[in-house]
Amino acid sequence: MPFEFSISATDGRARTGVLKTARGDIRTPAFMPVGTAATVKALTVDQVAQTGADILLGNTYHLMLRPGPERMQRLGGLHKFMRWDRPILTDSGGFQVMSLSGISKLTEEAVTFSSHIDGSKYVLTPERSIEIQADRLGSDIVMQLDECVAWPAGEARAREGMELSARWALRSRTAFGTRDAQALFGIQQGSTFENLRRESSDRLREIGFDGYAIGGLAVGEGHQAMCEVLDYAPAMLPAERPRYLMGVGKPVDLVEAVWRGVDMFDCVLPTRAGRHGQAWTWAGPINLKNARFAEDESPLDAAVPCPASTDYSRAYLHHLIRADEILGKVLLSWHNIAFFQALTAAMRAAITEGRFEQFRRDFHAGLER
Predict the structure, then answer these.
(1) How far apart are CA 338 and CA 332, in angstroms?
(2) Which of 185, 235, 281, 346 is 20–30 Å from 72 (CA)?
(3) Is 245 within 8 Å of 257 (Cβ atoms)?
(4) Of the listed 11, 146, 253, 266, which one is catalytic?
(5) Residue 195: which H helix or E strand, with range?
């Protein structure tokens, strides 16, 4: 295994530790800001680093279409291109292919699709996805190509997607081979069916991966249904390897998933919300467009160690958002990323100190006030 994952403390099923990589340590639980097209929207990499983020996520689908993987390799890879020297995880591109492309065709061999930008045709196989991520972009953590089945799905359809993902997992593992400074994660599928999740996990464990992701959630099933899957899904994966819940989510989702044994997360929510005037706080989201903030001189959150959180009044942020000033989108995105990093830091501390259950209760109480 190229990456060492050590768990330093547990509290119930919650755990905290460190995933060591050639480009730096990733403290878990970890939230990965999403840098879809080689940028965390509205922010510089220096701003992102100041929030405490140890790792970013890059999107294979978008980078494959523009600027293109071969050009990216000629320019020195994704880290050099976007000037981020810490770890990067790239997704496989499969989810976006099936959700964003105008027309896609799925076969045993590959998914063929049309670009949402100009309609040009592309073919993505498990082998090509690995090549793009590992060899062209140069990501530190590479994801297998899988099929994320749309929700809701019957058991037969969910099984079909799970089994294809398992076969693609083996092809991805073979294509990836053995590497000194890069890791490959497999992806558990099975929708909301426990038996399928278990079978998926067994097949992934037999192949062997550096880490394991829980896929196929946060696709419309709702918070409660997601938590019901997480009641059993993380424990099906190897305890000694990191567990990554893909595409999640809201702060309450992170708290509940960590309580159930998840280590890593990513989501576009912090920056997407920030661009639309929404700030996340310990009491839940607030909309800075609302008139009640027009003369509110308090900062967004004096306890979050970020200039956007501490140095600007809510009245000023309200003005920027109402005036559609770019700075408003920048500051709220910056604050939101910082808040998510503060949340994961607080969870790491609570687990280390053996008080995560109290932290969880206090978090929910804060949302209810």
Answers:
(1) 10
(2) 185
(3) yes
(4) 266
(5) helix 194-207
Would you state the torsion angle of the CA atoms of residues 136, 138, 141, 146, taken in this order, to the nearest 10 degrees? -10
Cα–Cα distance measured from residue 168 to residue 155, given in angstroms and rounded to the nearest whole number? 20
- Report the pLDDT averaged over residues 307-314: 98
Total number of residues shown for the chain: 369
Query: Residue 263 catalytic?
Result: no
Q: For residue range 87-109, what is the model confidence (pLDDT) as tens digits?
A: 999 999 888 877 765 668 899 99
Any residues with CB less than 8 A from the CB of 93 and at least 6 apart, and which? Answer: 59, 60, 61, 64, 124, 129, 132, 145
- Active site (annotated) includes residue 91: yes
Answer yes or no: is pLDDT of 262 > 90: yes
Neighbours of 208 (CB within 10 A): 12
Active-site option among 54, 91, 146, 263: 91
Instruction: Find the helix or strand (DSSP H, E) in which 346 lies.
Output: helix 326-352
Euclidean distance between CA atoms 17 and 30, whole angstroms: 10
Residues 207-233 have a mean pLDDT of: 97
